[in-house]
């Protein structure tokens, strides 16, 4: 059993050393560790401080969107993608920062929508709101 | 290597190589895109974002090192037990997400594989098979060690 734990310690140490080297040389890993999240995530404070025009995109379901949403946000989810993305593209202007949000941190839908907007529609400045709708609701009820 | 003629030993070796290949295949895309793996970890709602970011960079390297360590004789047993522990941890993470009714991003092979509703069953089955594939060579090793030590025991 002692030998097993020695191997575990060895492997954990080796993985830690490699992760440190990876963080030092790989910009994607570095920005993730230093920012505590992916580089395309944006906090609500940073979003509000941004000077260029913003386009909020709500990646939650239509039912959740109709209950409440960030003012002037547009719905965009997998159920009615083709219809909704047309409106998003119509409202988008060069220089606009798109911020996608879903229910909460880690809901995943906002990231999928953001990736699709970047990949399929070549929108250059698409961010994901950290904390999602929860973060917005907490900020406005404070 | 496996002694020729012993099908149990040969099977154990095949499984060991297959399991190592699976863990290596799982680690490489996560190392290449830690942000995608971070996003997948977030969907499990288990750890805070700061810890998840560190975990997203560290865990793939642990998977890679451990997968490679199943080959040298000295580290084989410890590495296999660690792969088994990792698989149990994955099953527990999956189980808690299923019980909480979460729609998660598996993050298993780095890509965005959404797990929801009945899809959980397939992932439980896959991890269960992985568990068996890791446990079998460990069992075979213990059995072989047991029989060789009994051969060394002097008769009364």
Molecular structure report:
The complex is a heterodimer of chains A (142) and B (156). With 142 residues, chain A is of the alpha/beta class. In chain A, 56% of the residues lie in helices and 13% in strands. Chain A is built from seven helices and five strands; from the N terminus they run ααβαβαβαβαβα. Chain A has helices at residues 2-25, 27-35, 44-49, 62-67, 81-91, 109-121, 132-141; strands at 41-42, 54-58, 74-75, 97-101, 126-129. In chain A, strands 1-5-4-2-3 form a five-stranded parallel β-sheet, sandwiched between helices. In chain A, helix 1 packs across helix 2. The mean pLDDT of chain A is 90. By secondary structure, chain B is mainly alpha-helical. Helix content of chain B is 74%, strand content 3%. Chain B is built from five helices and two strands. Chain B has a two-stranded antiparallel ribbon. Chain B is elongated and about 50 Å long. The model of chain B has no long low-confidence stretch (mean pLDDT 88). Chain A binds chain B through residues 3-8, 10-12, 14-16, 18-19, 22-23, 26, 28-29, 32-33, 35-40, 105-108, 111-112, 130, and chain B through 31, 33-35, 38-45, 49-50, 53-54, 56-59, 61-62, 64-66, 69, 75, 77-79, 81-82, 103-105, 112, 114.
Molecular shape of chain B: elongated
Classified in CATH, the superfamily of the largest domain in chain A is: Rhodanese-like domain
Helix tally of chain B equals 5
Taking all Cα atoms into account, the compactness measure Rg of chain B is: 18 Å
Portion in helices of chain B: over 70%
Per DSSP E runs of 2 or more residues, the count of β-strands of chain A stands at 5
Distance between the termini of chain A: 53 Å
Oligomer: heterodimer
CATH architecture of the largest domain in chain A: 3-Layer(aba) Sandwich
- The secondary-structure element order of chain A is HHEHEHEHEHEH
Greatest contact pair? A-B, 34 and 37 residues
List the helices and strands and how they pair.
The complex is a heterodimer of chains A (142) and B (156).
Chain A: H1 2-25, H2 27-35, E1 41-42, H3 44-49, E2 54-58, H4 62-67, E3 74-75, H5 81-91, E4 97-101, H6 109-121, E5 126-129, H7 132-141
Parallel strand pairs in A: 1-5, 2-3, 2-4, 4-5
Chain B: H1 7-32, H2 34-42, H3 49-68, H4 73-99, E1 104-105, E2 114-115, H5 119-152
Antiparallel strand pairs in B: 1-2
